[in-house]
Design goal:
Layout: E1 5-7, H1 15-27, E2 38-46, E3 51-55, H2 68-79, E4 85-94, E5 100-101, H3 107-120, E6 125-129, E7 135-138, H4 151-155
Parallel strand pairs: 4-6
Antiparallel strand pairs: 1-7, 2-3, 2-4, 4-5, 6-7
The structure holds tetrahydrodeoxyuridine.
């Protein structure tokens, strides 16, 4: 199985990943991030090529803040439960700055992605901008979360 790949430029990625990164950037327009001033967008493509996106939503009660990835994933599940997700791109920029900054999905979002992979019996590719501004293409959430907790532990 293919491992995690790194790319110096977004241009070096496949066209679907590039498009998804572009849609994720568009989604940051709907970030509500008055506290962190860190705007994150996520865009996922379903197997029928339709796209769903999300942006981080913050709250004055900080722990209630919700990451862009989970906004997109839960919207996908609530609106299109029958569709499998093939890939997700995540990007971020500081408020009022258009340049992307490195932002790799947090552990909670990786865990939620993993649950989706289990539900749909299919991996979800993840595209994100990592340290040193290298684009990361991970073949699955599982590849980003070794020794993760999953339903198998509850069943076993
Ligand atoms: N954030 C995301 O949207 N996704 C991540 O994977 C990490 C962090 C958001 C949450 C919060 O609104 C802001 O970035 C700063 O942590």
């Amino acid at each position: 199985m293919k491992g995690i790949e790194f790319f110096t430029s977004l241009e070096d990625l496949d066209s679907e990943s590039k498009y998804l990164a572009h849609k994720a950037k568009e989604a940051t327009a709907h970030s509500y991030a008055p506290y962190s001033k860190f705007c994150v967008g996520a865009a996922s493509v379903f197997e029928d090529s339709s796209i769903i996106s999300g942006a981080n939503q913050e709250n004055a009660a900080y722990p209630l803040c919700m990451c862009a990835e989970r906004v997109a994933l839960y919207a996908a599940s609530a609106l299109h439960p029958e569709k499998r997700i093939m890939k997700m791109a995540v990007v971020a920029h500081k408020k009022n700055h258009k340049d992307l900054v490195p932002a790799t999905s947090c552990g909670s979002c990786r865990q939620v992605l993993l649950e989706f992979e289990g539900r749909q019996h299919q991996p979800i590719e993840v595209i994100m901008l990592g340290p040193d501004k290298k684009w990361i293409k991970a073949p699955s959430a599982a590849s980003l979360l070794p020794f993760s907790f999953s339903k198998e532990a509850l069943d076993g």
